[in-house]
């Protein structure tokens, strides 16, 4: 079977690392027809937007995309391409695994948890306005429909992967209506999954507990803003964003991406670490039902990291982006 996949190289180091991931995935033996479409800063001059319609059309047509990092202006200009993609395609579930990898510098061991983040509402809905000259308001939107939907996703994931516990993360002690509605929605779903332990944690306490004893946690389900922050915290526990894969999943489409930035200072130097997007590609292959190829790539990555010889400078080695990809391909 040939899978049709949209490939979005992105900005900065994006083209280098997506090419590395494409080579590794192709070497696994899976048959993929890649449709490359450009998005980001490079297309603004021609199309007036970093996210032209043809990008969305390609993803809707192919149903699956692998995406490199895209630069988002801070405080002005266009809204985040990532947020727009999630809202336009209703990619309601953001999936961020955090797992200890061999050879990666971290003070923690034995971590294997997944952050499940609601992806379409909360403060990221972007409903905000100025109040006079010296104030601004941003509206936090929480609905029962979206909250129950992300809760079902989290419990279904835990059930399929044989995981033991789901923790709902909130601030309902302060935001009693919005976060209270999120919590009430998750509780109603938790009652259906009697075989999975369910607990709740206030978000600030959750951050402390993750630093103290992260091995105690399994699946975390959170509203959008908390999920964004806590998922980066979890990435830090296992070595940083350079080893953190991610997926945005909806009923119709799924976009898999490295969650780190575009690192324009490294663009063109062939030094960027491709691991995050390669592991995102592994998640994509499992989504496509290509479990054998996904497992083979994971094994090859593990061997390269264990040997530590052909890894990029941020991982303590001297390999180039292409050189690390080639080492993984050799193990395949």
Helix content: 25-40%
Run of helices and strands: EHEHHEHEEEEHEHEHEHEEHHH
SS element count, helices = 11
Structural class estimated from helices and strands? alpha/beta
Total discrete domains: 2
CATH superfamily of the largest domain: Isopropylmalate Dehydrogenase
Provide a descriptive summary of the structure in words:
- This protein is an alpha/beta fold and 332 residues long.
- The protein folds into 2 domains: 1-97 and 239-332, 3-Layer(aba) Sandwich (Isopropylmalate Dehydrogenase); 107-237, Isopropylmalate Dehydrogenase (3-Layer(aba) Sandwich).
- The chain is 39% helix and 19% strand.
- The protein has helices at 14-27, 44-47, 53-62, 81-88, 144-160, 178-190, 203-212, 224-237, 275-287, 291-307, 321-331, and strands spanning 2-8, 31-36, 64-67, 93-99, 112-118, 128-130, 136-138, 165-170, 197-202, 219-222, 245-249, 254-258.
- The strands form 2 sheets. Strands 2-1-3-12-11-4-5-10-8-9 form a 10-stranded mixed β-sheet, with helices on both faces. Strands 6-7 form a two-stranded antiparallel sheet.
- Strand 1, helix 1 (14-27) and strand 2 (31-36) form a beta-alpha-beta unit.
- Helix 5 (144-160) packs parallel to helix 6.
- The radius of gyration is 20 Å and the shape is globular.
- The model has no long low-confidence stretch (mean pLDDT 94).
